[in-house]
Amino acid sequence: MAKGQAIPADSLKSIETDRPDQTEASSLVPKGFVQIEAGWLRQVNKQEGITTVSQLVPTILVRYGLLPSLELRLLVEHLSIKGKDSHAGSINGMGPVAVGTKIKIAEEQGLLPEMAFIGHLTLRTGKPEFRPAYVVPDFRFSLSHTLSEKLSLGYNVGYEWAPDKAAGQAIYTLSLAREVTDRLGAFIEVFGQKPKQENWQHQLDGGFTFQILPNLQLDTSVGLGLSSSAPDFFVGGGVSVRLPK
């Protein structure tokens, strides 16, 4: 097949997504295809006697395969933040839009992992309470290893700048995924972030994916905090589709 040629439909792999875990996949959407990954997330965080409930309903990531080694990305989210103490109110509205790209760096070869670069710019859009003070960049490198026919390891390292021009945070993820059946997959993952001059916030999560069709997938996940500064727990789910069929 000539470089840059679109992939025939009958040779496509089953859908590979960047959700529900926090580890972004090193694989790209095939050239000429659009992938929509939609979901919801509910997170509870108890800090200094105050309980905050945050929800993303919905969160939508649109990915388009522009070239065999490059995809374009658009992320939109609707946020809801509510404090459960007697003095806290709630904020609801559209979050800022993020645009970005994923670029293939290397294919997997022996002990060397498959590798991709992912970068976004979060724009000054959305509800004023959620709008960043400036255009906020973030980036990460996504790597993965095939451990066996049914087992794979993925991990990310990167950095996210803060929306208020303060120092940002380093991030990492490490996810072990297993194919349980031809349609059912499972994963367990540890991930975290370290804001400047603060402690690491480590979390653990796990979940399942279920492929209804080769281009249609459902998912669910649940996670909890491993360090005192991390959110207490979260739960989420979603659906992903790749078009055309």
Summarize the structure.
0% of the residues lie in helices and 60% in strands. It is an all-beta fold and 245 residues long.
Features:
245 residues; mainly beta; 0% helix; globular; FApF
Q: Any overview of this molecule?
A:
With 245 residues, this protein is an all-beta fold. The protein has a domain at 24-145 and 211-243: Porin. It is 0% helix and 60% strand. The chain has a twelve-stranded antiparallel beta barrel. Strand 12 and strand 13 (233-243) form a beta hairpin. The radius of gyration is 18 Å and the shape is globular. 27% of the residues are buried. Mean pLDDT is 93; it is low at 1-10.
Strand order of the largest sheet: 1-2-3-5-6-7-8-9-10-11-12-13
CATH class of the domain at 24-145 and 211-243: Mainly Beta
The quaternary state of the protein chains shown equals single chain
- Specify the helix fraction band: under 10%
Shape: globular
Backbone CA Rg: 18 Å
Number of strands: 13
CATH architecture verdict of the domain at 24-145 and 211-243? Beta Barrel
**CATH fold name of the domain at 24-145 and 211-243:** Porin
Look at the helices and sheets and give the structural class.
Answer: mainly beta
Low-pLDDT runs of 5+ residues are 1-10
* Percentage of residues in strands: over 45%
Number of helices: 0
The arrangement of helices and strands along the chain is EEEEEEEEEEEEE
Report the average pLDDT across residues: 93
Distance between the termini: 21 Å
Q: Describe the biggest sheet?
A: 12 strands, antiparallel, barrel
